UniProtKB/TrEMBL annotation, chains A, B:
It comes from the Bacteria. Pfam families: AFOR_C, AFOR_N. The keyword Hydrolase does not apply. SUPFAM superfamilies: Aldehyde ferredoxin oxidoreductase, C-terminal domains, Aldehyde ferredoxin oxidoreductase, N-terminal domain. This is Aldehyde ferredoxin oxidoreductase. Keywords: 4Fe-4S, Iron, Iron-sulfur, Metal-binding, Oxidoreductase. Coiled coil: none annotated. Belongs to the AOR/FOR family. Its cofactor is tungstopterin; [4Fe-4S] cluster. InterPro entries: Ald_Fedxn_OxRdtase_dom2, Ald_Fedxn_OxRdtase_dom3, Ald_Fedxn_OxRdtase_N, Ald_Fedxn_OxRdtase_N_sf, OxRdtase_Ald_Fedxn_C, Tungsten_al_ferr_oxy-like_C, W-dependent_AOR. PANTHER family: ALDEHYDE FERREDOXIN OXIDOREDUCTASE (PTHR30038), TUNGSTEN-CONTAINING ALDEHYDE FERREDOXIN OXIDOREDUCTASE (PTHR30038:SF0). Residues 1-206 form the Aldehyde ferredoxin oxidoreductase N-terminal domain.
Length: 576, 576
């Protein structure tokens, strides 16, 4: 029997509950958003006792399907003030699924000042007092837990930034190589910190494992699905070879690479930080150009990046981080960015929010443009130690802007805008505006169609078709985020006719269900509407579905493009 | 002819405009809110080029009427994100009125990094580049301008905090003794700083002066009005004798004196900081227990507070400041609070927002409870110098809470809750929730009726009658804020039958009009609805008309009272 684990920190009790029938067919984002919408008062303080932190594996997590090992986390976000779902690779989703944990709900807040950890195993979940690992970075915690509990232990952990409850704090999950992947966005680590849970360990010894209703059908569909992933040029070649950082040169070419805190659309240092350079550097230094963030990944867009002495420096080194500190902060030294990436991983802080916050800080004159060494120093000595400056930067781009009177602050719903300029890639601007998550490229990745010509072509510089494109992708993504699938399956799903039916076949084979494509679309719509209803009840309005003013008034080179959607056009997104 | 002065900083031009007919009958808050609502896009960045800063004297400013010399300032607030009006004594309102300046509108934003000042005289307004007085505190700027332009010059000025565009920055106005009074709340000083105007000087030499349509009728009404002010025990005795600080002991007795960041309702150090102790200290040290903030004030609730050596320390030393650093921060030394008050005046920072921010900072462990010396040090060395810590505290209570993960943060619409606990004085809680200004006691001062039994009696601990009380007072206050009158005229207006008709008679005699009491009520309603419409368009909702959660969950001693209004009850405020 699947189960819900519920941890109540008000009285330090735990319960194993049956899965209510209305939650039984939901996983991942569909489940976390449904639970948050049902159980969290929308106007509560995100760091107070009435918020809840919910983890849920996807519908296909734990199966042998490729790329299905993602875990969703959900809560009211301390960054946006709205609902938040963020999903991650690593080993936890598959362990949850094998333990038949449908969701873990953490609620309440401990009395006193003590900290705790949770231990999950086949019996359920228990609460321990925690003192020894407090204040440590993510890597030290994982090392300690692997020594204590064995190499196979699953770990969900917050770093010092989560302990400080800063709005950029993320939650990290151990990956198969003992490194981490993170629920990056929206400050979910601060919510975990507010509940004073330093880490969750997972032991799946004796787990009952996954039941597949129709194993043969599942296998057949899985083969078709995996072949589609391997056949598509983006998921089969581009991402495996260069990682997500393949995008630096592509966005530079398109004039959509936000540069110097979103002042320009091209970066003259693009060659030094691009995926091609990174690939060659990794190979020359004996690193690994390919690495999967979870078992069963066939794309393997992660990597191991070594320093110039051939020593491990970082992994999970993503385009958005490299763009954010590179083009957006004018840092041309990839090694400095890698160093910063490693420190951010260890501190447990969202590298997108933080990189954009550094761009605003540079605009405010807090540090020189392009000074990667100073970025690393501020990360370690200011954010890591919780100085006032560190806390401001660690509270995100919006906080830096408010504290230093900067008006060029690229945020929507107070969440930093990622690596694609919405003036020159207009579809992604619609996603930034309308996603209930705040500015988030993954919520409806129009770059696929605007720039990569996946799923057709929609001119990035024109308004035509962008609302529909973003809407369709956001609906599809909400559904995909519920399956445990990596977002990159969208590339073959958009281009290869067999891919999406195979995904639906896998879900049907897993549960003995008979979902159609329409059912999946309806699921996506329901998720978006549930999330938006939470946000409206929390006090967000259409006025929060807007880009900052400067995108309208300041044209961006080289296209001299401005953001020219009217409010009415943006609001038409919700007509479905 | 009355005129509008308009300053456009985009191109450094100024214009003298006729007063549009729809603005002719408006003054003070009615006029600033009408202009802001008409000309400022509600979703603009408050510190960007699309916000406007508007000054307007009241309808009776410049006349011989008692207590009519208040100046309104309005803009979109960087603190609340909504519309803001804040009014002030000092000499500027009467100079504006004598110069027949109906309003001054400052719009746009200068190119480059230069700073400017404005010079107003009978010809209009001109723009000067400013370098010499940048970075100086308010007192030094006023001294310098008096040397340069003569003792009689009017001055409107921002201190270093306004230059830094921090959300607690105020705008100060020279008073008759060369000291200052401030447009305190909502960060209007940051708006002036964003426009890079350090000060405005006013020369009323050759001013045409006020025209009174019916001088005899005006004089007769003015006599009745002044007598009412003098006859009422609060405006005629309590305030003149003890200043606003008469309230410390009264609120302590009522259990409504927020103590230790709104943890308790009584302060064991109340005797050391109360109005009675302050009065005796002032007298013993050769200070002045009475002092008017503008010519024509018959209440004179201000004072001159000397240090123990008999040297001038501060004036305009208000209950809210003394409560905020005293009871709310547990500081028992009145001299420390006076020192802090003087530094805040010089820096140009709202003493309510800042005192409450210190309470949250103490809760976060940033400085010890009750440490007045450290408060003064932080004001001078951190806020005054713009360190990161200083900027966080100078950005207000909400910013401190967000940056340090504190959940007991007494704000509404991100503006700090003043000196009356809404759990034990429930009427004021309705005002805090619903005022378009954010938490603001002056917007509808139910303390009059809840605590002082002025205008009847409404039990502060019960819900009955509070919505109606707050609504009636907010409507009346919006109208009074449009006349140039001090809010303290509300005491006789509520209790002495002749007072309000005399006020209306003065307005009619001044303008040759025939307004009735209903017209005044309708004006108040229109102002509130105009302001609320701006806020809704800016993205605020009913969810912003709420007190923080902890007022519901944490009972406050000695009455163990909680905030128990439902959302529906609060929202019924707007049914008019």
């Amino acid at each position: 029997m699947d189960k819900i684990l519920r941890v109540n920190l008000n009285d330090l009790t735990t319960r194993v509950e049956e899965v209510p029938s209305e939650w039984a067919g939901l996983g991942g984002r569909a489940l976390t958003s449904t639970i948050v919408a049902k159980e969290v008062p929308p106007t509560c303080h995100a760091l107070g006792p009435n918020n809840k932190l919910v983890f849920a594996p996807g519908l296909l997590s734990g199966t042998a399907s490729s790329n299905s090992g993602r875990l969703s986390a959900g809560a009211k976000s301390p960054l946006t003030g709205g609902i938040k779902e963020s999903n991650v690779g690593g080993t936890a989703a598959q362990m949850f699924a094998r333990l038949r944990i449908h969701a873990l709900i953490i609620e309440g807040m401990p009395k006193g000042d003590g900290w705790y950890s949770l231990r999950i195993n086949k019996e359920g979940v228990s609460i321990q007092e925690e003192t020894g690992l407090l204040g440590l970075g993510n890597f030290a915690v994982i090392d300690a837990l692997q020594s204590l509990l064995g190499k196979k232990t699953g770990v969900i952990v917050i770093g010092p930034v989560g302990e400080m409850r800063l709005s950029s704090a993320n939650i990290s999950v151990k990956d198969p190589s003992g490194k981490i992947r993170s629920h990056g966005r929206g400050g979910l680590g601060a919510v975990m910190g507010s509940k004073r849970i330093k880490f969750i360990s997972i032991d799946d010894e004796g787990a009952p494992g996954i039941q597949i209703a129709d194993p043969e059908k599942f296998k057949a569909a899985s083969r078709v699905f995996t072949k589609a992933l391997m056949d598509h040029p983006v998921s089969g070649q581009g991402l495996p070879t260069y990682g997500t950082n393949v995008l630096v040169n592509i966005l530079h070419e398109a004039g959509g690479l936000p540069t110097r805190n979103f002042t320009y659309g091209q970066f003259d240092g693009h060659e030094q930080i691009c995926g091609e350079t990174m690939h060659d550097t990794i190979v020359a230094r004996g690193g690994k150009p390919r690495h999967g963030c979870h078992a069963g990944c066939v794309i393997q867009c992660s990597q191991v990046y070594n320093d110039k002495d051939g020593q491990y420096l970082t992994s999970g080194f993503e385009y958005e981080t490299i763009w954010g500190l590179g083009a957006n902060c004018l840092i041309k030294e990839l090694d400095d960015i890698a160093q910063a990436d490693s420190v951010m991983d260890d501190l447990g802080i969202d590298s997108i929010e933080t990189a954009v916050a550094f761009g605003v800080a540079m605009e405010a004159g807090l540090l020189p443009w392009g000074d990667g060494k100073e970025v690393v120093r501020i990360l370690r000595d200011e954010i890591g130690k919780g100085t006032a400056l560190g806390r401001v930067i660690g509270s995100g781009a919006g906080a830096v802007g408010r504290t230093y009177g900067v008006t060029r602050v690229p945020v929507v719903k107070n969440q930093a805008i990622p690596a694609y300029d919405p003036r020159s890639v207009k579809g992604i601007g619609i996603t930034y505006c309308t996603s209930p998550m705040g500015a988030d490229h993954t919520a409806g990745y129009t770059i696929a169609t605007n720039i990569l010509n996946v799923g057709g072509q929609v001119d990035p510089l024109k308004k035509d078709g962008q609302i529909e494109l973003s809407r369709n992708l956001q609906i599809a993504t909400a559904a995909i985020d519920s399956t445990g699938m990596c977002i990159f399956i969208a590339f073959p799903a958009l281009d290869i006719p067999e891919c999406l039916p195979a995904l639906i076949d896998m879900i049907n084979a897993r549960f003995g269900a008979s979902l159609t494509g329409d059912d999946v679309v309806n699921l996506g719509k329901t998720i978006l509407k549930t999330e938006r209803a939470f946000n409206l009840a929390a006090g967000l309005t259409a006025a929060d579905d807007r880009l900052p003013e400067f995108f309208k008034s300041d044209p961006v080179a080289p296209h001299q493009a401005v953001w020219d959607f009217t409010n009415e056009e943006i609001d038409a997104f919700w007509d479905f």
